[in-house]
Amino acid sequence: MNSQNKIKSSRLIVNYNGLKWLKMPSGYYFVMVKNFGGEKNLHRYVWVKNFGKIPQGFFVHHKDKNKDNNKIDNLELLSANEHAQKHSYRHDKKRYLKQIEHLNKIRPKKVYKWSQEPNPEKRAMHATAHKLGMSLAIPVERICKNCGTKFLAKPFGKHVFCSNKCKSAFRRKSKSDVVLRVCVICNKKFYINKFTVTTTCCRSHANVLRAKTIKEQKNGVG
């Protein structure tokens, strides 16, 4: 790395390769140039500058977990799975607990949709924390709304059925999926499951509609 490319810190801004990089609340440094065509995160920019384009699905990781240390010898290229493991509870307990504390503070105000995070590194981190939280959750006892059987389920979410079989049976009994339609042949009203595409009240009228459609298609072709 040339002397002009050395990273020089100045509070929350660093200079690298003739560009200014601003430290964001996330800890990463973002380029202070509008419509910048290259990598906008400093650690990724440093990697590309030294080794070329980053393959899709790979992440640039700080070996010492210090986002201020963006020297090339502190960076490594990892796959999504490897990167997620680096930020897992087992490898970074302190970081994970800090994330949980932060989420507990903001959750009452706003549920953060991490799946829509544009930054793939942040998205992978949130996904890992989410999966870990799901795996560590202690199941609670619930009662099936259909059969009355007690079952264990995660403490979050609307778990009211012990199985999909009971869920389907309850929906059939409650007729929650039944809608009223009008037959396109005789204008008779009939009830049908809303997930079907049926537009006739009976099979004979369905045959009439089919024959009519075929005839119209032939006339159209002719």
Sequence-ordered SSE layout with sheet pairings:
Blueprint lengths: L7 E3 L2 E4 L2 E5 L5 E3 L10 H10 L6 E5 L12 E5 H7 L6 H14 L13 H17 L3 E4 L6 E4 L10 H11 L3 E5 L6 E5 L9 H19 L1
Antiparallel strand pairs: 1-2, 2-3, 3-4, 5-6, 7-8, 9-10
Helix pairs in contact: 2-4
InterPro entries: His-Me_finger_sf (IPR044925), HNH_nuc (IPR003615)
GO molecular function, one term: endonuclease activity
Organism: Termititenax aidoneus
Short key terms for the protein model shown above:
222 residues; alpha+beta; Homing Intron 3 (I-Ppo) Encoded Endonuclease, Chain A; 4 domains; four-stranded antiparallel sheet; two-stranded antiparallel sheet; 6 helices
Overall description:
The protein is an alpha+beta fold and 222 residues long. Strand 9 and strand 10 (189-193) form a beta hairpin. The mean pLDDT is 82. It has 4 domains: 3-84, Homing Intron 3 (I-Ppo) Encoded Endonuclease, Chain A, CATH 3.90.75; 87-134, no CATH class; 140-174, no CATH class; 178-221, no CATH class. The protein has 6 helices and 10 strands; from the N terminus they run ββββαββαααββαββα.
